Amino acid sequence: MDERPIGIFDSGFGGLTVVRALLDLLPHEQLVYLGDTGRYPYGPRPADEVRRFAIELTATLVERHDVKMVVVACNTAASAALEELRARFRVPVLGVIEPGLRAAVQATRNAQVGVIGTVGTIASGSYQHLAEAMRAPVDLHCAACPGFVEFVERGELDTDQVHVLAERLLAPLRERDVDTLLLGCTHYPYLARTIADVMGREVVLVSSAEETAFDVRSVLAATGIGRPPGEPPLHRFYSSGDVGHFAEMGGRLLGREIGVAEPFVC
Ligand code: DGL
Do 59 and 84 form a contact (C-beta atoms < 8 A)? Predict the structure, then answer.
């Protein structure tokens, strides 16, 4: 048993989709969340820069917050840095790409899976590489969706503007007969209504959040580092940007009070 918290990071609010799943599945665990809102979006940045940010954030979680595990709740950062983080840090480091792909492979019936993500994630080829390594029996059709993250960060989840952008960016996937669409960016579940409207109700949307939480539970069980029931857990949220905005918008997106968001610099 291990009282230490689980560390989670993302470029901004997207990783809160994973936090939500962790709160539901592992209610005794304590969480420390870093939202790098001062430097979002990661998607358009060069992979080397995102890798550097990911190393800084993981070091902050491990060295300053003494976390027992790190969840890279950002596809862009996981695409750029997951292997390196695993090599550098002694705690288990989990990503969102493998759990998401696994869930999509399970969900599809016609083996045609769309994957949407940031420019960085899609350009990295991380989903195709993993599908090949897993010998996943599916065809992946990938599309970058620049601009989606910015809408979520501003809290514009269902506006005409985001709808128009979604129509344009998702058009190539609508021609591909995909029956499953993997939301390969942790911000995108917040746009699920818009994305579902554009893709059609028969297309199943898959988020990596729940499957990632199941992976966290498996690692906690396998390594014996779960937190026992007892004192209510204490969760802490940090933002490198506007902490007031983070607490207010983060609470709305998470569906529960965040309380105070604290500032951090790497
Ligand atoms: N949530 C991040 C992801 O999953 C968004 C990256 C960004 O800031 O562009 O990729």
Answer: no
Mean pLDDT by 10 residues, the chain (266 residues): 97 98 98 97 98 98 98 98 98 98 98 98 98 97 98 95 98 95 98 97 97 98 96 96 96 92 92
Instruction: Please work out whether the CB of residue 10 comes within 6 Å of at least one atom of ligand 1.
Output: yes
Burial status of residue 131 (CB atoms within 10 A of its CB: 0-12, 13-18, 19 or more): buried
* Domain annotation covers residue 155: yes
The pLDDT of residue 127 is: 98
Tell me, using a 6 A CB cutoff, whether residue 151 lines ligand 1: no
Is the Cβ atom of 237 under 6 angstroms away from ligand 1?
no
Does 81 map to a domain? yes
pTM over 0.90: yes
User: In three state form, how does the secondary structure of 59-118 look?
Assistant: HHHHHHHCCCEEEECCHHHHHHHHHHHHHHCCCCEECCHHHHHHHHHHHCCCCEEEEEEC
User: What is the residue range of 155's domain?
Assistant: 97-208
Residue 34 CA to residue 72 CA, distance in Å, equals: 10
Q: In angstroms, how far is CA 205 from the centroid of its own chain?
A: 15
Residue finishing a domain among 208, 228, 254: 208
Domain assignment present for residue 109? The answer is yes
Residues 241 and 222 in one domain: yes
Q: Give the total number of structural domains in the chain.
A: 2
pLDDT at 266: 82
Same domain? For 107 and 189 the reply is yes
Give SS3 for 222: helix
Closest CA to 95 of 87, 106, 86, 105: 86
Distance 255 CA to ligand 1 centre (A): 20
